[in-house]
What does this fold into?
Amino acid sequence: MLKKLKKKKKSNLLTITLTSSLILSGITFDIASAQSPDSSTVQQNQTSIVQTTPSFLTDAASIESVIQAMSLEEKAKFVVGVGMPGFGGTPPFEVTGAVGGTFGIPRLGIPELRLADGPAGLRIRPTRPGQTQTYYATAFPIATALASTWDPATAEAVGQAQGNEVKEYGVDLLLAPALNIHRNPLNGRNFEYYSEDPLIAGKMAAAMVNGVQSNGVGATIKHFAANNQETNRNSIDTIVSERALREIYLKGFEIAVKESHPWSVMSSYNKLNGTYTSQNADLLTTILRKDWGYTGFVMTDWFGGDNPVEQMKAGNDMIMPGMSYQSELIKAAVEGGNMDESVLDRNIKNILQIVIQTPEFKKYQNTDKPDLTAHAQTARNAAAEGMVLLKNDKMPLPISKDQKIAIFGNTQIETVKGGTGSGDVNAAYTTSIVDGLKTGGYQINQRLLQEYKTYIDTLRSQDQYKIKQSPWGEDFGKLIPAIPEKPLADSEIASSSKESDIGIIVIGRISGEGADRKVVKGDYLLSDAEQEMISKVSAEYHKQGKKVAVILNIGGPIEVASWRDKVDSILLAWQPGQEAGYAVADVISGKVNPSGKLATTFPVKYSDVASANSFPGTPVGNPKQVVYNEDIYVGYRYNTTFNVKPAYEFGYGLSYTSFDINHLNINEGKKFKDKLKVSAMVENTGNLSGREVVQVYVSAPDGKLEKPAVELKAFGKTKDLKPHQRELLQFELNAKDLASYDEGENAWVLEKGTYTVKVGASSEDIKESATFTVDHDMVVEKVNEALAPKVEFERLTK
Ligand code: BGC
It folds into this structure.
């Protein structure tokens, strides 16, 4: 049912008094104790220090005096980046391929910082003119694959390795992780994002940030917020309720901010309820700093927003990549009395507090030699850990090494490591699926393989299919035009089926920054050639009494319902990074027992997606506005509440062994006080070792606020359990974890009634449940009113 969301009575126009009382720093400044290079003769008198000792950035205590010593022009330059190579800027970057840098003021001891993308690995240029040394970075599995591990420890290990490359290649801040919500499967950049669920997204991002920052370099969580499509991303106005924002679109950021203290936050390109996010004080000051206590700095996305002065006022501390006219406008605004200089001082302080933590400031001598071999192993482990076994009827997988394999599909050779655009990584290599299997010891049908090689080589030599440089410049990887799936002759299939024990079909997709995917054949839908390949290979192999497995080398859901019954196994390998083939072989061989679970729903048909009608906005064709009518019912919250059966549900994933989840136990004598302790036992009931994920969902009672049928509230993964081994997993939930957002009260509230805790192996496969009650309505946390939509719109209700 769609209900009208009325405009809120109270004005959402927040006036922010930009006084120093708003400056959250957590650091008290004591000018008298400021250390400067020649402060060995520190004077006791504060005034004499300011007058006699040159201000120099040395530590937190020196920041205030450094700001005082900056001229207005320096201030206006410092809050604007130094430009981007290839986009009008020629900043003096030593790290070729870094996309941004900050303005240095040597006389005050302020160094230039270097910023480079993320999130699947550090994106820098691998070669430099006149040098033989290379600067390849490791391409890790895409974020969606990492989320499918349901294992923050894996994400943290990847973060540690990425952060080491950031540090050793001389970069200060990684522009990652990205944690927008998979609102709709067609978002071209979903591969960079974790999940449709904010708890998974937040926990994974926090783990990644902690890993990156353990190296003494910074992470940047992006794109803040509600940036869930590429269509018209620089101008689209996202209209969304305060509740959906707080519970879905901001929640992951809140978790990441609180659990990992990222050095920086990148505001997004879009408008949010009428205002560019980078110019949105409600978002960047009221919510981020006042409600959540954030103490790092905020930067714009590249060329985002349209008013540098409004960006400064809103709390967007730094403008990236930066153009000189922006500094000029900022300076003029202060001179003309349109902006108080204290606004600039506040923003500069936020940035300098991070500057003093950077390798550049600490004069770290980077080696340019990160341990790429060790990181490749981390990438391989993570990739295998994130693969999801969607189907395995009668266990064709794992495949023993003595079996002969015939492989179909172009992507067995042209395996996709990740998506395109700023989320690409210039890796030294990508191991193809067929090479990974060969190296893993499998005998591959050579005749078929040769036919594929010849086909691909022939097409790639034609102009339209030649691999080109990305239109965005050589730092953005390669543009690989998709070639049509190789047509298969019946005789080719028949002979391979006689010569082989099992058939494997690889289906691949790539998407990226700048465009959304489409519900067309060859993209969201299978092409006719792909359908035919699946039908014909399956029919022929089954006729011979042989099995067929499909490997999906994709970055986000595709249509599966029309073909999945024809094949015996489906392994969702995602876009697994540079170690793709090796990781696939690890899972295919059973060296790694798959334990990945979907963190994003695979619908039966696209129209089953809650946002199918509103994505990517109106007017159709060239949208200006996108209204999130589905409100809080995103992904599985929609499927479970409105009984829309997905093809593969959120949380789903098989194993080569089997598990029982039982002995659910909750404390609190069935009445909630302030903490709910939940425990459940996992037992490996099969014949192979493996890991299982326990998912804790809660069904909350409808009260003044209606609730989704289930919401994920906690999750945990067992260690590798041997057959019959058991492990007790324990969870603790507090009132905030269980609360919903009440727009009328501007508060997180826990409504009275009976709550059901459900532990299971997916959002639909609930193993046990238990209830507890909440006696009376509780206001768990009051927050500031912010971001109320200014227009009326329909929102989905039960
Ligand atoms: C992307 C950001 C990226 C930046 C710098 C933008 O187009 O949206 O995610 O960090 O470019 O490459």
